[in-house]
Each structure stands twice: as C-alpha cells, then as structure tokens.
Amino acid sequence: MTITITTAPCCWGVDDVNDPNLPAWERVFDEAAAAGYGGLELGPYGYVPLDHQQVGKALAERGLFIVAGTIFDDLVSPANRENLLRQTDEICAVITRLPQPAQAAGQRFKTPYLTVMDWGHDERDYAAGHFDRAPRLSDEAWAGMVANIKAIAALASSRYGVRAVIHPHAGGYVEFADEIERIASDVPAEIAGFCLDTGHTYYSGMDPVKTLRRYAGRLDYAHFKDIDRAVFERVLGEKIRFFEACAEGVMCPIGRGVIDYPAVKQVLEEIGYHGFITVEQERDPQSVAGSLQDVKESRDYLRSVGF
To answer: Locate the Xylose isomerase-like TIM barrel domain: which residues (predicted)?
Structure first.
C-alpha cells in the first residue's frame, strides 16, 4: 500500500467563501507545510486565486503540490448546469498547471482530481445525519442531478484529463447508504469514481470500514476525518445545520474521535488502495488559531498507525 497524506483548507475553516472570517490562503499554505504535509487541495471555488502562475509560485516556495480541486455547489438544479461547467472549466484549467506529486504505482488515476459534492439545500442541511427524516429527490430531480454530474465529469476528463470523483457529503443529496448505492449505479465507473470520506460516512449512519470495502472498485481518492462522540450525540438531537455542528467541534483531530483508524488501514491494505488521502477537520474559521496544532496532531497520529 502506497499512500500519500495531504490536507485541505477546510481544516482552517474554509468552506463558505463568503465568510468574512476566512484566513488568507497563503496562511493555509504556510501551515500545511509547517505541519508536515507535502500537498493539499485547492479548496472551494473562489478561495485560492485562479491564477496558476501566482499559486504555482506560492506552492513551489513551500514545497507543496495540489492534489485536487472542488465543486461544492447545487448539483440538482438543471438551471445551475452552466455555472457548474464554468467552475469545472476554470478549476481544471488551474489545477492541471500547478505542481503535482509523484504518482504511486498501482494508483488508478493520476492527480489532480476534481471532487464533486452536492450542497445548498436547507431541507437536507438541517437533516444531515438523519436518514429517517431527510427528504429524498423525486426520480425526475435525481435524473437531473445525475445529468449534471455526468456533464461535469465529461468536461473534466475530455478537456483536461482530470478524473472526477463523487464525494457523498452530509447535508447534500448524496449522503446516505441508499443514495450512494443509487449514484454508483447511475454514474458508471468509466465516467466518475468515488471520494469516500470516513467522517461523513460515520456522520450519516454508516460504518466507514464496511463502506470502503463495499465501494473498493470505485475508490479513486479518500478523505479522512474524525468525530467527537459527545458533540456528535448532542448535535444530532438539535435542529442544526451541518457546518454549525462543525463550528461546535463535532470534527476533531484524527485519533481523538470514534473512528477506528487501524481498522481503516487494514481494509485499505486488503482492497489494495494506492494513492492519496486528504485529512480534513471542518471548523469555524474564527478558531483558526488551533488549525496548525490540529492538522499536525492528525498527521502525527496517522503516522503512528502506519500511514
């Protein structure tokens, strides 16, 4: 098993690009390097400048690479197709011109990846983690979402050679076990892979180890995070948005929470996973002073269990 551990701007509270409290992207790059990571994700559209020369220079100065870009938007609405494809075009044009890591033997697809996540629906945001009360899409709306995902993946692949990976996300319309199974059926592996996230999997009522094993044939990329049991049990009893739960500390440094990472390592070895895993810890950007310590703690813990 050849694994490279990277990180992402969400560890610094970067999810909503309109939040006035976000740290400067240069700080994220500085602290990612200081914590011992060789690379990171670009973050949500509009956070890091879409200027490959400026960003490439900043990465090179810190010895960093970019492993993935992100589409984090409404994947359901047909009216959003043009916006989604514009983002895809602009993100892929940048990430394919930024420093890249050495590719691992046995890795299915080369970096950079484009992680594709549905977001922006209040009715699902407030039902994050609640399989029984989360509304599901109609067949027509589901078909529209599938068409949008296929269009994103086709543009990324045909124009830039970038592999799109679908990321089930708490609070979006691809979250729960039934939805992951349906998207796996409706979007074939030749069109897009999966980026499975241990934290979102657990948050949404699934076993991360069993889910990784079940979708081994689709797993092109992965995210690691951990969950504070006490905070998780409390927020599930509240009417709360997913990122409000994150601001309350539901995500914690890896090794402090409920997810069994030795078991995760074992299943990745069993399925022969090779490639990249990104550490995440969504948080309130106003608590960014703790980000460097937390991402370093996560990296050190993963190293201690063999990653």
So the answer is: 29-304
